[in-house]
Design brief:
This protein is mainly alpha-helical and 64 residues long. It has one domain. 89% of the residues lie in helices and 0% in strands. It contains two helices and no strands. The termini are far apart.
Length: 64
């Protein structure tokens, strides 16, 4: 794929993403989307916290 066709594809994908984001931010589903994103972020944060705690415990046991 040539350099110019990569640029065109990148532009089209970027424009499509921009249109999709604009649509959701201006729709009635914006609040629902934001809540889903917050929920998923909280789940991910809890998952990483558990992994960190597990790692810290394992490290303490290894060093003791």
């Amino acid at each position: 794929m040539s350099r110019s066709s990569k640029a065109v594809v990148s532009f089209i994908v970027g424009a499509a993403v921009g249109v999709a984001v604009g649509y959701f931010l201006n729709s009635d589903k914006k609040d629902e989307l934001v809540e889903k994103m917050k929920y998923q972020a909280d789940k991910l944060k809890d998952k990483w916290k558990k992994k960190r705690d597990h790692f810290e415990d394992a490290l303490e046991n290894e060093l003791a």
